[in-house]
Fold this protein.
Amino acid sequence: MSYQLVDHNLVEKEFTEIIYELRPCPDKDGKPVAGLNNAWIFLNNPKQFNSYTTAAVKEVILAVRKASADRSVVTVVFTAVGDKAFCTGGNTKEYAEYYAGRPHEYKQYMRLFNDMITALLYCDKPVICRVNGMRVAGGQEIGMACDYTVSSDLAVFGQAGPKHGSAPDGGSTDFLHLFVGIERAIASCTLCEMWTAHEAVMIGLISQAIPVLKVDERFVANPLVITSRWLDERGQIVYGKRKSGDELAQGKAMMERGVIDLTPLDDAVNKLATKILYTMPDCVNKTLNSMRKKKLEHWDRNHQTNRDWLGLNMMTEAKAGFRAFNEGPKNNREIDFVKLRLAIAAGQPWTEEFVESLLPR
């Protein structure tokens, strides 16, 4: 008996800000299975490190829903174009030039952002974050909303908000401690120091870091970081840390000799999708929804009030921080933090003149 299947998509959308592709899911022998696909969703703004604009956020929501409703889809692969960045968060040019000083507009934008996170957490298919480059700020947050992470070992992970005028309240203050523990999460969210991909594996943030640098026709681990474990002079484990001195110089020279080839990353993503293929789909979905509750417990409690605060913050620190990043010289995109703190201690109100005085020149 055949049925006329119902279309459960909200709208039909031609994607222009992102890329949506159905790719055949491979079986255990690596052969494509006719009629079964993985849905690949690409952020497509490589010139701005795949930061998401308002228009792109809308399309990601619809793309995730489309993949979730597609009966042929085994897994969703959330990734981006190029080899420099998965995502560096919201588009700071748009933030600085449109949203800064407009709290109600930014609050509307944050409703869209929240819906993007929720779409990932409610997806009826497993979601793999394929990290093709840096995963920073809001990029870290949308990545943690996914179920698995397979990364290039050249990538870095971390937050940027308190350096540039925001709090990482788009998911990191809800999710990060579930991955790495409370103290590491606090340090990351406040100090904005980056983890290498190898560190991220070691601390439990991601599951795989795949070498993608090809030197003399063979793939080598990230030459800029320490990829074996030992104790340093303080008795602390060293692994995945950035090299220094002559070793770092040698690593940079190797980077210049090599080429980045993401084929091993794609192979690892496909192998993970194949493992998922050979499981009961409803059992997997129920398991995922049970596991996702740990994230949703925090997300559902906080995201609406976080949205309120993030909107109001566009009148103060965000207004200064995003403008500094957008307008400052390439080597200095941060406000004068000491001046800000001294002014606050003296009771300085947030005026246009004060914001201007904080910007780098």
User: Anything to note?
Assistant: The longest strand covers residues 32-43. The longest helix spans residues 281-313. The radius of gyration is 21 Å. Residues 334-361 form one domain.
